[in-house]
């Protein structure tokens, strides 16, 4: 059976830039665009040329893509002006892009109140803008803003906007759920109505996620006739975000209801890079990846309960809706206070340790994990600490160094400029092969000072840790009050790009931090083959 083609259009570089706390540099934009092109996205929207210096520079020369088209985004011309006399429209036409996407009002209320023009003038602006871009040889799309709210308020006018865009030559007429409030059953019904005036082969969907239905709404639109989907990587976007292409793409490729009827530009073999692409974007934005994200999250294929873990090892397909490897993820049988032998064996196998299920050390390790987690330790997010715990029980971790004592002082004082500042200083005394080494360091805070002091001089092991970088530090308080227990998770990275996390627990946050720091350095020495 011949499958119908769906077109994927990414708006990460514009919609995603409206996410709270997200600011793309020009280098970021180029990097992300290359990731999207490599994945197989059909069209990549670069932003709004003329809106700011960064976007203007980005559109001075379009990126070189192997597959994707490059689109510029902007408004239709203003009412009362010709296309040639509208600076915004001219900046779109002057941008070095393959396509132009116009945003146009499709809700009669917004036309009258926001634009301050008549309904007829709005249609005329839409028509002239599209026709001008088409005449210039640009593939053109029209994002019909607030289409679904407009349809509910005045269906005739909303459909008139869609019809005018198509008649003027727009390749895609995109129906936008701009405030994200429309539900899947409404999307399906309204898209079906729109398909009566615009062929589905020219109809698209742009869904926001304010009811957590953007992906579902996009799929409902496809089933109702739309053949163009707009979305962003990791669902970035203002307020609650946009339709998440990282969830949509594997659904379209792997779920029979869509895979048997439709095809997309992303080849099946590229799907294995999806997890890496998703996490790379988070790294660029200095964000921690969502552990619970569908398909690509660290917990997406994780099993914690012992009885489930045993079943997953025997028949993974009964507990996993797709194979983790298909999206570049992996199965994880978590080590926790709910773990059984299956979890422990799976984790040991992952780190390269093979033991028989009858080995007495498995029970010892399981008991130790449960005991430590009852005190507040968490090995789900600290793989390196678990590996050290396991290998210590197996007698596989050398005593690289012994910490005899450490001290941290925090002093609030005036600096040379007369500013009142807080200064942290740490002193660490360690013993390496019988040699006593004492190091001191100042840091931005007590943990930073401790980290610098501990790694300042480890004698013969110093060369193994020169490239270490502390990249994340997280604290959680248990049993709040004066007797609170603190859990610290620390993530390190080395020059090879490898990263690992360790955990420390104590009533004292500095002590908990030091435990995690010491584990992180020990893990690095172990992995480096230090003797």
TrEMBL record:
<dbReference type="InterPro" id="IPR013785">
    <property type="entry name" value="Aldolase_TIM"/>
</dbReference>
<keyword id="KW-0412">Isoleucine biosynthesis</keyword>
<comment type="pathway">
    <text>Amino-acid biosynthesis; L-isoleucine biosynthesis; 2-oxobutanoate from pyruvate: step 1/3.</text>
</comment>
<dbReference type="GO" id="GO:0009098">
    <property type="term" value="P:L-leucine biosynthetic process"/>
</dbReference>
<keyword id="KW-0808">Transferase</keyword>
<keyword id="KW-0028">Amino-acid biosynthesis</keyword>
<dbReference type="GO" id="GO:0009097">
    <property type="term" value="P:isoleucine biosynthetic process"/>
</dbReference>
<comment type="similarity">
    <text>Belongs to the alpha-IPM synthase/homocitrate synthase family.</text>
</comment>
<dbReference type="InterPro" id="IPR013709">
    <property type="entry name" value="2-isopropylmalate_synth_dimer"/>
</dbReference>
<keyword id="KW-0100">Branched-chain amino acid biosynthesis</keyword>
<protein>
    <recommendedName>
        <fullName>Citramalate synthase</fullName>
        <ecNumber>2.3.3.21</ecNumber>
    </recommendedName>
</protein>
<dbReference type="Pfam" id="PF22617">
    <property type="entry name" value="HCS_D2"/>
</dbReference>
<dbReference type="Pfam" id="PF08502">
    <property type="entry name" value="LeuA_dimer"/>
</dbReference>
<dbReference type="InterPro" id="IPR002034">
    <property type="entry name" value="AIPM/Hcit_synth_CS"/>
</dbReference>
<feature type="domain" description="Pyruvate carboxyltransferase">
    <location>
        <begin position="6"/>
        <end position="272"/>
    </location>
</feature>
<dbReference type="GO" id="GO:0043714">
    <property type="term" value="F:(R)-citramalate synthase activity"/>
</dbReference>
<dbReference type="InterPro" id="IPR005675">
    <property type="entry name" value="Citramal_synthase"/>
</dbReference>
<dbReference type="GO" id="GO:0003852">
    <property type="term" value="F:2-isopropylmalate synthase activity"/>
</dbReference>
<dbReference type="InterPro" id="IPR036230">
    <property type="entry name" value="LeuA_allosteric_dom_sf"/>
</dbReference>
<dbReference type="InterPro" id="IPR000891">
    <property type="entry name" value="PYR_CT"/>
</dbReference>
<dbReference type="InterPro" id="IPR054691">
    <property type="entry name" value="LeuA/HCS_post-cat"/>
</dbReference>
<dbReference type="Pfam" id="PF00682">
    <property type="entry name" value="HMGL-like"/>
</dbReference>
